């Protein structure tokens, strides 16, 4: 395997888009990597980015753990939240001397056979929409804009459908509905029906309700009196709406392109539910956990999945009970965060995920 020289890498730095640069001559020492952030023994010298690549996938070509990506790049928190800097045709280099990854624009072969960088800037060449995503977006798109979780307080105070013209009970697209509740100056709403109550596996308390998305409605006329109703028109209908269904403002377009990263603080959580009401999950399935923004979790957080060690009798010593070690079996990428609940995509597992399993900060 050809090992790229530090000369070629040095040529790439002017177009490295402000990523940290460490070299033997710079006087700066690259921060040491944790023991879990080792490069793979067979890591390639480079990877040319193509459409369909993800940060997770590229990271997996070089690193034992994709959540080590920010540590290898030396990224700060703001860069983790705004990773629109890797595009198709760019090249990720493995700087073996300093144990870091580097980024350069496309290269071309010069007339003398010397490798040269294409003199282009990111702003002049790329559109932000072309940046590669953190994980495969098609797996989570249906869950990004639709409400998944409604907090207890939000559910109690959500505007609700109270009536329909001509005494109808069920309504569909283009029908009018009458709503009561505080709209908070909103005009466009999603309509949902409360689903199962989600209970914290530790406290056994209800921490939210899984919302069943059934459509969207637009405000047509506000109530004229204190005891009146607001008039809405149904603009989309996934299924028929009925009296008692609730409304929630349509959220802004979510930003999901965060870099996979370990949480800044220790997290110990449990699996609350598998989306869809089943008991078990596998790779590419979606699960919820009993921790959210109040615990320091944000989009892109990567957590380990596992289960508590079983208590078994010690058959060599009067069958006294002993606890086996916890078994960690996979990784979870958080893509949507609420106050006390988060949703994640199961990325890599060697076992099935069960409700009640443990979810924790990756061990460094």
UniProtKB/TrEMBL annotation:
Q: Which InterPro entries match?
A: Bact_Kbp (IPR052196), LysM (IPR018392), LysM_dom_sf (IPR036779)
Supply the Pfam families for this chain. Answer: LysM
Gene3D superfamilies annotated for this entry? LysM domain (3.10.350.10)
Q: Which residues form the signal peptide?
A: 1-23
Q: Does the keyword Signal apply?
A: yes
Q: Which UniProt keywords apply?
A: Signal
| Signal is among the record's keywords | yes
- The UniProt record lists the LysM domain at 45-94
The organism's superkingdom is given as Bacteria
PANTHER family per record: PHAGE-LIKE ELEMENT PBSX PROTEIN XKDP, POTASSIUM BINDING PROTEIN KBP
Instruction: Name it.
Output: LysM peptidoglycan-binding domain-containing protein
Provenance organism:
Undibacterium fentianense
Which classification does the entry list for the species? Bacteria, Pseudomonadati, Pseudomonadota, Betaproteobacteria, Burkholderiales
